[in-house]
Amino acid sequence: MSLPTALNIDLDLNLHRGFYIHAGAQISMAKEDNKPYNPSYYNGFTLTPRFEGRAFGLYVPINYNELTELNAGVSVRLGPLFVGSGSILTALTGESKQADFHVGLRFGGLQKNKYKKYKKNESQNSNNNKVAPENNNKKENKKEGGAAQGIEL
């Protein structure tokens, strides 16, 4: 007998403006001959396309595992409240070997990428701080709160 050791791999990609896809795998590291009839020893793979906005989210998890095979579900988030099932779509076809339901409250919120905002402001400030040429002299340009930069024009 061995401990229920598993390798978990997750990948989450932002496809375009609120559209994401998540891929995940849980791969059992136990030897085949040591696996009893226990769900913690089975491999599972999940693909979840989703739309994620500030006030609304829609998720469609598709999962395959060695114990219950294929399952598909749907979840919806309205504000901080989310409800759904990981197997409701499969259950509606009458082929499900699993039943589940989830409900919860989400804490925190989505945040805009502060790095992109910082870089955008930085490039706008550098464009606004250029000195116009006067008699082909060297000018110094000082940024707010920073050291002087020499600009040759």
Describe the protein's architecture and organization.
This protein is mainly beta and 153 residues long. 13% of the residues lie in helices and 42% in strands. The chain contains 2 helices and 11 strands; from the N terminus they run ββββββββαβαββ. The protein has helices spanning 88-92, 114-128, and strands at 6-16, 19-28, 44-52, 56-59, 62-65, 69-72, 74-78, 81-85, 102-105, 139-142, 148-151. Strands 1, 2, 3, 4, 5, 6, 7, 8 and 9 form a 9-stranded antiparallel beta sheet that branches. A two-stranded antiparallel sheet has the order 10-11. A hairpin with a 2-residue loop joins strand 7 (74-78) and strand 8 (81-85). Mean pLDDT is 78; it is low at 136-153.
